[in-house]
Amino acid sequence: MSVWRSWALRAGHLHVWASQTLASYWLPARLNRFRALHPDIKLTMTISNTEEICAQLSAGTISFGLIEGAVSVPSLKTEILAHDQLLLVVSPEHDWARCPPSPARLGETRWVLREKGSGTRSSFETSLTAWGIAVDSLDIVMQLTSNEAIAAMVSTGDAATVLSASVVSGLIENSLLCSVAIPFPERHFSIALGSRSLSPAEAAFRSFLRNG
Q: Nearest CA to 189 among 72, 67, 85?
């Protein structure tokens, strides 16, 4: 490590903006490892959704953010950090737990979904479009900003949802949710970069994430 870099990371503040799935499941262990490497860096995390993070980057308010799925803002640069899989899940009592539907039948149930602007919602809608299904044709009875609240609602009700495997794998293993065999394309966890220059702490964190 260079003398400059060693000095630069003796103090400072790292403010991470991250989408909800990343912030709750993928990021905590990595933040702990980064903190162990740089114990004098103060850490703050703001949890938002992909659309809001991209808006902050475009406005120059922040210099980087951690997001899910595709980015529709051409001015932003993205670097893939990890891969993720969406799963369609229902309660064990739902008809689809016993008889999985084809994509053409997705309109035959109620839905509880993430809010518009989330990476999870955007990825789901992209798949619907590819299957020729209009988003407005779904019976969306509730939209929530919490993955965990959605999973709880679906596990105790009659609706379906689509969430990251990282969110629902434990609930599936404990038979609280059932995965429905409809394949969704793999999506990405990425770091998105705006026009602002990275601080020494931000540059070190970016390098840490890129190098595993």
A: 67
